Amino acid sequence: MASIQKTIEVNVPVSRAYNQWTQFEDFPEFMDGIEEVKQLDDKSLHWKANIGGKNVEWMAEIDEQIPDKRIAWHSISGARNDGIVTFEPLGPIKTQVTLLLEYDPEGIVETVGDKLGFVTRRVEGDLE
Questions:
Q1: The whole model's pTM is what?
Q2: Residues 87-99: pLDDT tens digits?
């Protein structure tokens, strides 16, 4: 599996940063390539995305969710990926957000795209 770890500082309180990340169905509004996220219950999410011109879907399960601290998940079907996002307050209106994403590129296009850094740049853009 490939892995990406990125950290960004945002000028909002930790609760606001965390709350934005828990609005999973809003992800298509600010994440390139994500077409739809449906939250089926407290722990289950269905994702649709376009990655390198290829439509992919997967189910993910939230393993851990600690308010204002951490969200961890893993895919249970479809495109394989696992991740953890953590939130660390740096003051009353500043938060450090760190994302660790592990994924399994499928096929030659995704493997080459991964080697060229396309996934890393997409993650950086989505975090910003």
A1: 0.82
A2: 999 999 999 999 9
- Distances in Å between the Cα of 126 and the Cα atoms of 96, 99, 121 are 15, 11, 9
Burial of 60 (0-12, 13-18, 19+ CB in 10 A): buried
Q: What is the per-residue pLDDT for 105?
A: 58
Please give the angle made by the CA atoms of 124, 37 and 101, to the nearest 5 degrees.
35
Pick out the chain residues at pLDDT < 70: 52, 105-128
What residue has token string 């760190």? 98
Residue 29 and residue 39: Cα distance in Å, rounded?
15
DSSP 25: G
Closest CA to 62 of 17, 19, 24: 24
Buried b (16+ CB within 10 A) or exposed e, 69-108: eebbbebeebbebbbbbbbbeeeeeebebebebbbebeee
